């Protein structure tokens, strides 16, 4: 009777062990631990470093410049779009942006002196033909 009890769990656990054994055979090929002595493990650490780099990059504060502002100014300069610049004190300046840098823009105006405007003094700006937030 002990033989039948012992053989029944062995028969039931045998398929489970076979499935588990099959899984064990697959795992070493994924982890590549058996290839350490053959020099084939170089791509795996590089992939791990690359995958860990974006995780650490997410922790780093984003860069200050996205180039969206530069793209906008360059497009308006190339097309010579008439712009309306509203300053923080409420003054409105109309003209064409001639050049810009990190801290200011130069606005060419017809019939009035050209201005260099500091960017912190600008409340908002829009194209002259559009409806602005007046």
What would you note in describing this structure?
The chain is about 45% helix and about 20% strand. It has about 130 residues and is an alpha+beta fold. The protein has helices at about 1-30, 45-60, 70-80, and strands at about 80-85, 90-100, 105-110, 115-120, 120-125. It has 2 domains: about 1-60, no CATH class; about 70-125, SH3 type barrels (Roll). A 5-stranded antiparallel β-sheet has the order 4-3-2-1-5. The protein is globular.
- Radius of gyration, in Å, reads 34 Å
Domain module tally: 2
Record the strand order, biggest sheet.
4-3-2-1-5
Low-confidence residue ranges: none
How would you sum up the major sheet?
Answer: 5 strands, antiparallel
The secondary-structure class comes to alpha+beta
The string of secondary-structure elements, in order, is HHHEEEEE
Beta-strand residue percentage: 15-25%
Could you report the average pLDDT, rounded to the nearest whole number? 74
**Basic shape:** globular
The CATH architecture name of the largest domain reads: Roll
Compile the SSE list and pairings:
Layout: H1 2-31, H2 43-59, H3 68-79, E1 82-87, E2 92-100, E3 104-108, E4 115-118, E5 122-127
Protein traits:
five-stranded antiparallel β-sheet, 5 strands, globular, SH3 type barrels, 134 residues, 2 domains, alpha+beta
Task: Provide a compact summary of the structure.
With 134 residues, the protein is α+β, with helices and mostly antiparallel strands. The chain is built from three helices and five strands. The protein has helices spanning 2-31, 43-59, 68-79; strands at residues 82-87, 92-100, 104-108, 115-118, 122-127.
């Amino acid at each position: 009777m002990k033989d039948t009890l012992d053989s029944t769990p062995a028969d039931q656990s045998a398929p489970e062990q076979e499935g588990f054994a099959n899984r064990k055979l697959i795992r070493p090929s994924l982890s590549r631990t058996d290839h350490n002595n053959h020099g084939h493990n170089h791509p795996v650490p590089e992939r791990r470093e690359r995958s860990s780099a974006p995780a650490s990059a997410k922790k780093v504060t984003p860069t200050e410049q996205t180039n969206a502002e530069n793209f906008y100014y360059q497009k308006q300069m190339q097309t010579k779009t008439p712009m309306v610049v509203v300053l923080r004190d409420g003054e409105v300046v109309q003209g064409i942006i001639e050049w810009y840098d990190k801290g200011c823009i130069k606005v060419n105006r017809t019939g009035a002196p050209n201005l260099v405007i500091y960017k912190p003094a600008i409340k908002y700006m829009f194209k002259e033909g559009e409806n602005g937030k007046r």
